[in-house]
Amino acid sequence: MERARPLTSRRRLLRGAALAAVPYALLPWPRAGAHVQAPDHPTAEWQPASAANYTRARRPAQYSIDLVIIHVTQTRYSQTLNVFRNPKKKVSAHYVVRSGDGHVAQCVREADVAWHAGDWEHNTRSIGIEHEGWVDEPGYFTGALYGRSAALTAAICARHGIPTDRRHIIGHHEVPGTDHTDPGPHWDWERYMTLVEAAM
Ligand SMILES: [Zn+2]
């Protein structure tokens, strides 16, 4: 998890001010009221983040998506959802996977830019998946968590044409310039990638 400042915040304000004057058909954004509040991943539970914690977008038309970024929450599942709902936190991810049963919550639409990678470029080109646990507590990385997350990643890769390899499915620590270490040394990449392949 990490806050990231979007470069478009001022433009978003201006866009809001312009809504009254510009016909909706001319706007490249969906109307707020028309934004579909339903998960992209059919089995995910919709648990929306505060609109203050991500950037509304039209991906992949607006930004192409070629990365899945794997995170570990460093807090409980329920607390992660609370953080994403809190407009002061300025952080979000598209999905959160619960440790005990692999339950998947979707908090941000895949079309929108979640703030999880730590820099704007990586946020715009990625889908972020948080996993309940701590980098130094491997017991949280259950079979259910690996299995449900791998199925989610496989579905994301299929939807967006992302290759299922380690150049395109990366850990937060592999984002250039980050000081984050998640998912950490106990995350079993070999197991995870095998599960992703099996789910394709
Ligand atoms: Zn992270």
From TrEMBL:
One Pfam family named in its UniProt record: Amidase_2
Domain N-acetylmuramoyl-L-alanine amidase, first and last residues per copy: 54-184
Class of enzymatic activity (EC top level): hydrolase
Signal peptide span: 1-34
Record CDD domains: PGRP (cd06583)
SUPFAM superfamilies: N-acetylmuramoyl-L-alanine amidase-like
Residue spans crossing the bilayer: none
EC number: 3.5.1.28
Keywords recorded for this protein, A-Z: Cell wall biogenesis/degradation, Hydrolase, Signal
Domain of life: Bacteria
Catalytic activity: Hydrolyzes the link between N-acetylmuramoyl residues and L-amino acid residues in certain cell-wall glycopeptides
Name of the molecule in the record: N-acetylmuramoyl-L-alanine amidase
Organism: Streptomyces fuscus
